[in-house]
Amino acid sequence: MHASLFSLVTVDDPGVVFAWGMEIVGDRDGEECRKTVVHVGGPGGQGSISTHESAEKACARWSAVVPLDLRWDVDDWIDATRLVAGWSAGEQGADR
Q1: Is 1 helix (H, G, I), strand (E, B) or coil?
Q2: Inter-residue contact 18 to 66 (CB < 8 Å)
Q3: H or E element that contains 17
Q4: To bridge 46 with a disulfide, which of 10, 42, 73, 91 should be the other Cys (CB 3.0-4.6 Å)?
């Protein structure tokens, strides 16, 4: 089993994140099994969580609200983790 992180960004401004998600791919009885969890932020810290069959289907569903693009976030999430942990880009090779 492995997981891939992604964001759904607005088509008009790819810097605006509409939702964050994680697609989990596993194996069930020899068949590939995908599950996707999406968190859509809301006003005042409120939000909603939804599940979908894939990241692409989540993007299609939420694009009915606002036009969205799917962006896989490998580097963005690594950078965010480093920021939360207090690492800077110059400390990537430092032991922590």
Answers
A1: coil
A2: yes
A3: strand 17-28
A4: 42
Structure tokens at 44: 């005042």
Other C-beta atoms within 10 Å of 87: how many? 15
Label each residue of 21-60 as H, E or C. Answer: EEEEEEEECCEEEEEEEEEEECHHHCEEEEEECCHHHHHH
pLDDT in tens, 35-88: 999 999 877 778 899 999 999 999 999 999 999 999 997 765 556 556 555 554
- 49 token code pair: 């969580």
DSSP annotation of 89 reads: G
The pair of three-digit structure tokens given for residue 92, joined into one six-digit string: 């990537």
Q: Give the Cα separation of 30 and 50 in Å (integer).
A: 26
